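Proteins fold. Shown next:

***
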Amino acid sequence: YTPYNSDFVRAIKNIGGAKWTGKCWAVPEDAADAAREIMKSVYGMDDSPNSETVKLKVTVLNEIYEDRTDVNFLGKCLCHASGRDSGGTPGTGVSYISGSPSSGGSVKNWESRVPEDSVIILTNVSKSLYDAYLENPEEWCKVEVIEEKKSKEQLIAEKEELLKRIAEIDKMLEE
């Protein structure tokens, strides 16, 4: 199960035996690792529960659009349209604070559009995907991390993971 992303759909179709069930993509068991690699390349993470994520505020400085496909950014669908007059819809984990996704263009050459001055909140963005983005940022937007306070339980779990990793490193250093 993944959020809808046209890049993911194109890639998963290249796995032999991959099928859309009407609810999710199913792949043969021996192709699970390949499916996870596609998830990592598109979403920056796979289905492992320990993937670190960030919450981002994206301010669109210049209108962006894609011809006959979705506008995707950092593994999220900013705008999905299916025709000139279909209108646009945001994907999972995408919330417009201002502005609105739309469609346009001509009947045969329609576009998915995200207007200038839109402000969008992206949740559960892969931290590794965001870090890679920082090495070569886009000019059409300004991206800021929204710091979220962690609960006591989250902090305890994070501490346990870090202590476990420190113990692993200590053991490697002893060898």
User: Anything to note?
Assistant: The chain has a mean pLDDT of 91. Residues 93 and 150 are 19 Å apart (CA to CA).
